Amino acid sequence: ICGEDVHETGLIWDEGDGDKRAWPVPGTLVPLHGTNPPRAEVFMALYELDGTPVGYDPRLALQRQVDAFTARGLTPAGAFELEFFLLAKERGPDGRMRPAADVLDGRASHKTEVYSVDHLHGMLPLFSDIYAGAAKAGIEAETLISEYAPGQYELTLNYRTDVMRAADDLVRLKRIVRAQARAHGVVACFMAKPVEEYAGSGMHFHVSLRDRDGVNVFAEAPGQGWTDPLLHALGGLRATMGESMLVFAPHLNSWRRFANQSYAPVSTAWGVNNRSVALRVPAGDVKARRIEHRPAGVDANPYLVAATVLAGVRHGLDRRLDPGPETTGNAYDQPDAGAGIPRSWHEAIVAAQGSDFLREALGEAMHRTFTAVKAAEYARVARTIADVDFDLYLHTV
């Protein structure tokens, strides 16, 4: 983020800043849309010179969790939702970023137009190129809607029985959205909270587990109550959420997203078809029973998010944890709202640094590297003099 070495990771002078090897990840070479001459991209994995995978590769952290489920005869399945803003290249007279004007007719929105078809139509040339780029990359992009803020949109992805592929899809799709937005003269923004008076952008992760026969173990039999695996998974996710929040909200701006009545969760509550909770069990077809994990912002790393969520699920299954009662109604108004969740970025960094759960979930090297980088980022931001300092204090102290 800051473009600076973080010596506390132990990867710079402690190791002599040595070379590594980067090898293409098999099966990840895809063509790019709209390039001339034709081009393609491929994911790379880092290895030590002796061929050992480096421990701070986010894909490796996710693969370790997938392998742990495979060893017990289960396959994680999942999908991400991608929320983002389209902003104008030029700031407004007040110096703030503004929603992008429609590429068709130049109309700019300054109010919420959630689910507006007309609002989508104004960006149709851009969205058509996004869908074309996704299709060319083998990404099954599904529903696109205008979201709960001016210039905000949500694009959902097809459910995958391979969560690594689901995370790969999300990473590629962000690159496609950013590239196509630039081609159409606007800016794609993946900050969690770019506009203070409106909702932020999340990266909700839907997850379920399939057994060796492909049966969803979260799905209850007709007329029966919730399955034990679903309840234990919810219990594990609730128990580990507080110490994991740095993964879901890794930056200063991430924490501006969390507020009452904001569609971003402020507690570990779970509920059915309830968007005020952190862990939502969507209504609908029983065969598609899953958990929607809602804390992560769109600025989070999808590999680390998926790895941490899967580790939380496994934590609950291994210990047969009870998630407690379902939250009904408005979770923001519950007496224990906010319990167990850090209240700030700094609190989240401290919690993550001391978390044995997160160390196991990410692996020792990834945990050390991630928390050191976040601590360095926090220190950099903390010593930066921002405009708000002058706005508040120049003429008052």
Quick gist of this model?
The protein is α+β, with helices and mostly antiparallel strands. Helix content is 34%, strand content 14%.
Largest sheet: 8 strands, mixed
CATH H level of the domain at 70-342: which superfamily? Glutamine synthetase/guanido kinase, catalytic domain
Structural class, by secondary structure, is alpha+beta
The chain-level mean pLDDT equals: 92
Order of helices and strands: EEEEHEHHEEHEEHEEEHHHHH
CATH topology category name of the domain at 70-342: Creatine Kinase, Chain A, domain 2
Class of the domain at 70-342 in CATH?
A: Alpha Beta
Report the count of strand segments: 12
Question: Helix fraction?
Answer: 25-40%
Cα-based radius of gyration, to the nearest Å: 21 Å
Work out the helix count: 10
Measure the end-to-end span.
Answer: 33 Å
CA-based shape: globular
Instruction: Flag low-confidence runs.
Output: none
Beta-strand proportion: 5-15%
CATH architecture of the domain at 70-342: 2-Layer Sandwich
Please tell me about this protein's structure.
The chain is an alpha+beta fold and 397 residues long. The protein has a domain at 70-342: Glutamine synthetase/guanido kinase, catalytic domain (Creatine Kinase, Chain A, domain 2, 2-Layer Sandwich). Helix content is 34%, strand content 14%. It has 10 helices and 12 strands. The strands form 3 sheets. Strands 5, 6, 7, 8, 9, 10, 11 and 12 form an 8-stranded mixed β-sheet that branches. Strands 1-4 form a two-stranded antiparallel sheet. Strands 2-3 form a two-stranded antiparallel ribbon. A hairpin with an 8-residue loop joins strand 2 (30-31) and strand 3 (40-41). Helix 6 (302-319) packs across helix 8. The protein is globular, with a radius of gyration of 21 Å. The two termini are 33 Å apart.
